[in-house]
């Protein structure tokens, strides 16, 4: 799931991830991707965020 959203965000940014320009455009790209999601998808992500807040992210996510 993480990689799916990461690739959608990356498609919105015309710069390479290692560049300063990429970081400058990240929030706008994230907002665009979130606005395109349907309510069900956003709800799933909200629930996942709440779970990770309580329990912490899985180790495979923390190391990336």
List keywords for this structure.
mainly alpha, 4 helices, globular, 64 residues, single chain
Describe the protein's architecture and organization.
With 64 residues, the protein is an all-alpha fold. The chain has one domain. Helices cover 77% and strands 0% of the residues. The chain has helices spanning 2-12, 20-36, 39-55, 59-62. Helix 1 (2-12) packs across helix 2 (20-36). The longest helix is centred in the middle third of the chain and has 17 residues, at 20-36. It is globular. It starts with a helix and ends with a helix.
Please describe the topology of this protein:
Blueprint lengths: L1 H11 L7 H17 L2 H17 L3 H4 L2
Helix pairs in contact: 1-2
Into which percentage range does the β-strand content fall?
under 5%
Radius of gyration, in Å, reads 13 Å
The count of domains is 1
Tally the beta strands: 0
Helix content: over 70%
First-to-last CA distance = 14 Å
- Summed over residues and divided by their number, the pLDDT gives a mean of 89
- Derived structural class: mainly alpha
Shape: globular
Summarize this structure briefly.
The chain has 64 residues and is mainly alpha-helical. 77% of the residues lie in helices and 0% in strands. The longest helix has 17 residues, at 20-36.
């Amino acid at each position: 799931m993480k990689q799916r959203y990461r690739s959608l965000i990356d498609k919105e940014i015309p710069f390479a991830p290692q560049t300063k320009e990429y970081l400058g455009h990240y929030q706008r790209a994230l907002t665009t991707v979130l606005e395109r999601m349907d309510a069900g998808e956003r709800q799933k992500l909200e629930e996942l965020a709440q779970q990770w807040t309580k329990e912490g992210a899985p180790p495979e996510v923390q190391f990336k």
